[in-house]
Amino acid sequence: MLLNQLVEINKKGSIASSVNFGMLDDLEKNLPLCESFIFNYDSTKPELSTVGILDAVRRSYHSPNQPNIHLMIQQYGKGKSHFAIAIANFFKKTFHSQEVQGILSQVEKATSAKNQAISEGLKLFKQNQCHQHLVICLSGDQGGDIRKQFLQQLVKNLEEVGIQDYLAQDICSEPLRYLENLNLENRTKAEKYLESIGNPDGDLNSLIRLLRENNSGVLSSVKKLAFQITGFTPDFTADINIEVIIEDLLKNYCTGQNAHFQGILILFDELNYYLKSWAADDIGAGGTALQNITNICENYKGKIALLSFT
Question: What pTM value is reported for the model?
Answer without folding.
Answer: 0.86
